[in-house]
Design brief:
alpha+beta, 15 strands, 38% strand, elongated
Length: 259
């Protein structure tokens, strides 16, 4: 049974390496580090980058040893046969990482989000992919902001710009969105969460990882499966029993560097 700053639960013993407190502190507190900025950044075990080991997802932080014009040398944690921790050297493409955190700007957040456009949906990390909350977690991790794992917990962070209930009209929601800054604003819904992009021709747009939405056809709803990261306006789902994204929006939250 393990606990981290973002989640807790049972993990198979063969997937855990046991290290000393000093070893682990040295690894996670390295003053020189890189952040994975690619959706999936490959790690290799030789400097020619031929012997592939694994990949890490966007936002993962690894200690930096050296770098040149094409690659970086990093430390990676491995499990030895006896279950103990071993810190090994790995190599990554320079283009897949950034030395230190990216500057926290709306432009950088939106750029990272669009690198994941069309990335497959994976509820709870299923199939090695991400769901709506992991999507935001990975993006904001590149600038050093560690969001909680679940959307309901993410909805509690940030500076509240507005909150809504079912009785609030569309006009109130749109007026509040016009004061929000795209790229640093999240939009929580029940069971879902999105990154606000901004307004275009008075229509609000967001980028989000979603399984699908409901569309009204005749007297019944039809489920449209998207199963990927999409850009949509907030009228998606309008007329269905669940309502549009705009109708279902619970709050508008600005994510600040100090959480």
């Amino acid at each position: 049974y393990v606990q981290s700053s973002q989640s807790f639960g049972w993990v198979k013993k063969e997937n855990i390496a046991i290290g000393t407190l000093e070893e682990i502190k040295n690894f996670i507190s390295s003053p020189e580090f890189v952040i994975a900025t690619a959706p999936k950044a490959d790690i290799f075990l030789n400097d020619q980058r031929i012997q592939h080991y694994d990949y890490v997802r966007m936002g993962v932080k690894l200690p930096l040893l050296e770098k040149d014009n094409v690659k970086v040398q990093v430390q990676i944690p491995l499990r030895q046969d006896d279950g103990s921790l071993m810190i090994k050297t790995g190599y990554m493409n320079l283009e897949d990482v950034h030395e230190g955190y990216l500057p926290y700007t709306p432009r950088n957040i939106i750029k990272q989000a669009f690198l994941l456009l069309n990335a497959p949906y994976g509820w709870g990390g299923m199939y090695g992919e991400q769901d709506c909350s992991a999507f935001l977690q990975e993006i904001f991790g590149t600038v050093g902001i560690l969001l909680p794992r679940d959307s309901k917990d993410q909805a509690q962070v940030g500076y509240p710009l507005a909150s809504f209930d079912k009785t609030d009209k569309e006009e109130k929601r749109l007026a509040a969105l016009k004061n929000a800054v795209g790229g640093i604003t999240i939009l929580p819904l029940k069971g879902h969460i999105m990154l606000f992009l901004g307004m275009l021709d008075d229509r609000p747009f967001a980028i989000h990882e979603t399984w699908g939405y409901r569309e009204r056809k005749s007297s019944a709803d039809v489920v449209r499966v998207l199963n990927r990261v999409v850009v949509s306006d907030l009228y998606l789902g309008a007329g269905s029993k669940k309502g549009s994204l705009l109708d279902r929006m619970l709050a508008i939250k600005a994510i600040t560097k100090e959480q």
